[in-house]
Every structure is written in structure tokens, then in C-alpha cells.
Amino acid sequence: MMASLKTPTLKTPSFALSSKPRLPSAFSAAFPNTARFPRSHPQRRRFLIVTASSSSFSNKPTVLVAEKLGEAGLTLLKEFANVDCSYNLSPEELCTKISLCDALIVRSGTKVNREVFESSGGRLKVVGRAGVGIDNVDLSAATEHGCLVVNAPTANTVAAAEHGIALLAAMARNVAQADASVKAGKWQRNKYVGVSLVGKTLAVLGFGKVGSEVARRAKGLGMHVIAHDPYAPADRARAIGVELVSFDEAIATADFISLHMPLTPATNKMLNDETFAKMKKGVRIVNVARGGVIDEEALVRALDAGVVAQAALDVFSEEPPKQDSKLVQHERVTVTPHLGASTMEAQEGVAIEIAEAVVGALKGELAATAVNAPMVPAEVLTELKPYVELAEKLGRLAVQLVAGGSGVKTVKVSYASSRAPDDLDTRLLRAMITKGLIEPISSVFVNLVNADYTAKQRGLRITEERILLDGSPESPLESIQVQIANVESKFASAMSESGEIKVEGRVKDGIPHLTKVGSFEVDVSLEGSIILCRQVDQPGMIGTVGSILGEENVNVSFMSVGRVAPRKHAVMAIGVDEQPSKETLKRIGEVPAIEEFVFLKL
Ligand SMILES: NC(=O)c1ccc[n+]([C@@H]2O[C@H](COP(=O)([O-])OP(=O)(O)OC[C@H]3O[C@@H](n4cnc5c(N)ncnc54)[C@H](O)[C@@H]3O)[C@@H](O)[C@H]2O)c1
Ligand SMILES: O=C(O)[C@H](O)COP(=O)(O)O
């Protein structure tokens, strides 16, 4: 039983900036701008996520570029931001500078640790890693500080693969050692007899972007290529004639091993005394991935024992390695100073890729290469946009209805949809409900990056339930319901029969609406602010309250009354464009038929 009394005045979404960046503005501003990603970018239009919006559109943001970046990238950055290129900063200098920066761009040479995020005082919004590996960035600290981390995952793939092949061939033919020998005035043709590649087995460990390009090239050299990667699809390997095998099989059968996995806790020192012992005697190892995937001391032992005949290394657990490092100085080891990505072409590409990602993220646009936020397919994101706004507003409303109790700890979210659960990605919605629940009651800035972390930190448990409806699955969601348990409400009518604060909303014509408060059905578009009144249903109430608001020039955008039965209790929801003064709210509360009321800011 519900009556809508006034058609809502639909306004353009507000872009006004608050002290806390508001994600919905970013959504409104950004959809579906994907043109910034280079046409060649494989993730273009595939995976996009929304980032925090820039803190200010009036002042140019400041980007600190802490390692050398290609000119094309700098030019792109300078069109949008103040760019401070300060290379070779000490950790202390970096921590001092960072509090003045909105974004930081690094390569692999800068440690972006927890201290950096703590020193930023909340200003740092984006860290751009101009390359692939993000092991030099403390992702947990970034996430905890709501800072997005983006990388440039594709532009240096070919360069790294080419360097891997260069090291493979140079190692097999002793190119570096022979070169040094000739330059030292020697002519040692017998000493530098090499081994052939053709017909030999190469095990590629890590069959991702670089690994698969290395495999492709090694096939061209006539090698038999096998690969180990627990997460790579077998059909992708098969397509280029590579067999995926177990780790033990790969290392036991390979004449050459090429490493291409990221450095993670699981891959740290993956090649160690135990695994070297399982290898074919005389194996040769190439590493253009990360130094830490090899136990370097164990490698020296394996070289000395003749288990490993040779190694060619571009990366080291400590960079630069100590000059007297036994590994670096080993006669049968060829080394380069982390040159995998260092071609003119790759550096130009990486610079453009990272500059676009950082500028986009600072503008609050969609970021395709985020590494610490959920990636949601672009089509899903576009479809969910109004529901994302609804989710945040329901969270905001629900938490403002809380009066006391044990604190907001248990929240249940129900999504009613005709779509099968697998077709409904609720991560964005959950993040935005979390944002709505936490921001009005704290100084914490919540975004997609840190929503789950922040909820966990605050002991807020959000459970999700899907209600499968009959009907057409055309729209992703019918309604979202947010319930807060174990609390009291400052508006008793918002309590459900089972004792939770309950609000429910829907999207109508692309606009989020509040459709239920407690057990009362209402219909008010979620814009501006809302006054909820419980009254005894009787003629003249709308006019009475409307006149009080009108006298103070508060514009009513929407009014709706939900009632149990005629002349019984009813809840009136009034949307207002301006915030009424305390005096006006007091006057509403004094209307005899009004039993309780609450003013809620959206
Ligand atoms: N030397 C350089 O200058 C240079 C340049 C580019 C990339 N890299 C490094 O190369 C590595 C690969 O880069 P990419 O762009 O191909 O990354 P990628 O993410 O495309 O591929 C990495 C692959 O490793 C796999 N993997 C993860 N854990 C594994 C495990 N335990 N065992 C086997 N495989 C595992 C993943 O499934 C993935 O397929 C990274 O470490 C990157 O930092 C170095
Ligand atoms: O992970 C990468 O992209 C490479 O290791 C390249 O690192 P660099 O940008 O420091 O050359």
C-alpha cells in the first residue's frame, strides 16, 4: 500500500567534491571511457575497474617519477599533472617527498614499502609500476591505505623474452666469457666449445606472457619445449606445441630451464638444494624473472658440484648484487644488470602504458591494470553502475538509522535477482555498501581497493545472500536489501519484524530508489537528503510538512507514503534538495500526528 505523490526532479549526478573523494562521482564521470588504453592493449575493454577519484579537479595533482621514464610517458603526464622527476632518492628522501604527491611512478629499483604509504599522510592515491613485477611494492600496505597500484604488464613482454633467448644462446656458446678472453689478449678456441640448442629440451617455468613468448622463440630454434605453470590453460600451451608438465617432471627432464614466474611467497627460492638435486646433471639455467626465485647460495653449490653446468642471470635477490658475489663472479655464470625490459621500444611502450594508467586513475577513471583491486569486466561494470550507487546509498541510510546497541558489526545484504548466482558479480556492490556503512561514522576513506580490508579491520561482518526470482534475467538485480543486526534504531519504524534495521532499494529508470524501510513500502529517489516520518495516516499531513519545508525554501524533490492500512500507521519519505535547519526539523517533529522522524543525509 503505497502512494507516490510527486514525480522526482532528476538532476545530473553531482560532481561536487567533498573532503573525502566520492566514488560515485568517479563512476558518473568515467563510464565507459576506455579510449585511453592503447588499441594494442590486450586488456582493452576486457577488464576495467573503478579507482578512487582525484582529490581535486581544481588543483593539478603532483606525480613523483622516481625512476627514469620514457619521454612519451612524461609528456602525457605533464599534460595533466605537475611532474617531479627525482631519481636516486634515498628511502628517507622518498618518504619526505611523498607527502606532497598524489601519484608515484617507479620501476624495479625503488622499494615502495609500508613507510612510504604511512609517510604519504593519505595523499598518495596511485602507485604506478612502470613494468611488470610489483614485488618492490608493498601491496598490503597500499591496500590498507586505499592506494591503488597499477602496472604496465604488456609493453616489455617481448623485450624480456628476447633477452631470455639472448642469454640462452650466449650461455650455450660462452659468448660473454669468450669475449672477455679475446679482449684480454687470449685466443682460447678449445676452452669455449659450447653446446647446441637444437633438439634439446627447454623447460619454461611460468607460462605467462614472457614464458610463452620464450617458448615460441625456442621452438623456432628447434628445441623441444615443455612448461610448468599450475595456473596456465593447457590449450594455450598446446596451441604453440608446448606440453604442460609437473614441476618435478620439468626439472628432471630439462637440458635448459628458463624461469618466468613472479616472485611470490610460493615461488621464493623455488630452485634450492632439494630441487637442484632432482635436475639432470649438466642442466643450464636462465633467469630473467626475479632473483629471489633461486636460492643463490644453493645455485653456487650446484654449479660447483657440476649439477648445474651454466647459468645466465639478469636478476638477483639483491640488486645490484655485491661485487664479490660468488655467483656473479662464477666462471660459468653469465650476468646482465636487469636488462630484460631495457630496449628503446619497450621503455617507450612502458612509459606510455603507465602514464595512461596513472592519469586515468587520478581522474577517477577506469583502470585496466590495477593489481590490488577487484577486476570486473567492463560490460558488467556498465550494467551495475546504478546498482553501485544504490548500494552505497543504502549503506549510508542504514548506518544513519542506528541509535545504539553493540555497534555495527553484522550486516546482511540480500540481492534479489532473476540471474543465476554465477551471473551476478557482487564484489563492487559489497564494496560500495561497506563504503556507505563506514564513511558516515568514521574519518576513513573507503574505496574499492580497501573496502574488504577496512570492514575486516573494524570487525564488520558482511554476509551476502542471493534471492533467485522467477522472470527475465534482463536486468542484473531486482532489489538490494541491507539489514543491520543487534542494534537499536533512532527510527523505530525502520526495524524489521525480526529486529534488524532494514532498508531496501531498487533502480528505476536508471535512478536508485528507496523502496522499503522496516516493513513500510515507500518510493523515494535517492538524491539529496531524506526525511522519514512515522505518522498516523490522515488527510493534510503531506501539506502540513510540505508547508513547513516550503517556508524555509527547502525544495521537496519527492514524497511518498507507505502505510499498513488506511488511517493506521504510515511512513512518509520526503526527498529534499537542501538540508533543513534544526528549527525546521523541530517544527516537523512537533506536528501532533508525527510520532517519530529522522533526517538522513545521502
Ligand atoms: N628481467 C626483466 O627485466 C623482466 C621483464 C619483464 C618481466 N620480468 C619478470 O618476468 C616474470 C614473468 O612476467 P610475465 O609478464 O610473463 O608475468 P605473467 O603474470 O604473465 O606470467 C607469470 C606466470 O607465472 C605463473 N606462475 C605463478 N606461480 C607459479 C609457480 N609457482 N610455478 C610456475 N608458474 C607460476 C603464472 O601462472 C603466470 O602464468 C615476472 O617475474 C616479471 O617480473 C622481468
Ligand atoms: O618486472 C619488470 O617489468 C622488469 O623486471 C623490468 O624492470 P625495470 O622496469 O626495473 O627494468
What structural category do the secondary elements indicate? alpha/beta
Strand segment count: 26
User: Into which percentage range does the β-strand content fall?
Assistant: 15-25%
Largest sheet: number of strands, sense, barrel closure: 7 strands, parallel
Cα-atom radius of gyration: 30 Å
Low-confidence runs: 1-58
Share of helix, binned = 25-40%
Would you summarize the structure shown here?
By secondary structure, the protein is of the alpha/beta class.
Written description of the protein model:
The protein has 602 residues and is of the alpha/beta class. 31% of the residues lie in helices and 25% in strands. It is built from 19 helices and 26 strands. A 7-stranded parallel beta sheet has the order 10-9-8-11-12-13-14, with helices on both faces. It has a 6-stranded mixed beta sheet with strand order 18-17-19-20-21-22, covered by helices on one side. Strands 1-24-25-23-26 form a 5-stranded antiparallel beta sheet, sandwiched between helices. The radius of gyration is 30 Å and the shape is elongated. Mean pLDDT is 87; it is low at 1-58. The chain binds nicotinamide-adenine-dinucleotide and 3-phosphoglyceric acid.
Blueprint of the fold:
Layout: E1 2-4, H1 23-30, E2 47-50, E3 62-65, H2 71-80, E4 82-85, H3 91-98, E5 103-106, H4 114-119, E6 126-129, H5 139-144, E7 148-151, H6 157-172, H7 175-183, E8 201-205, H8 209-220, E9 224-228, H9 234-239, E10 243-244, H10 247-253, E11 256-259, H11 273-277, E12 283-287, H12 296-304, E13 308-313, H13 326-329, E14 333-335, H14 344-362, E15 366-367, E16 376-377, H15 378-400, E17 402-417, H16 427-438, H17 451-457, E18 461-468, E19 479-489, E20 501-508, E21 511-517, E22 520-525, E23 529-536, H18 541-551, E24 556-563, E25 569-576, H19 582-590, E26 594-601
Parallel strand pairs: 3-4, 3-5, 5-6, 6-7, 8-9, 8-11, 9-10, 11-12, 12-13, 13-14, 17-18
Antiparallel strand pairs: 1-24, 2-15, 2-16, 17-19, 19-20, 20-21, 21-22, 23-25, 23-26, 24-25
Helix pairs in contact: 2-14, 6-8, 15-16, 16-17
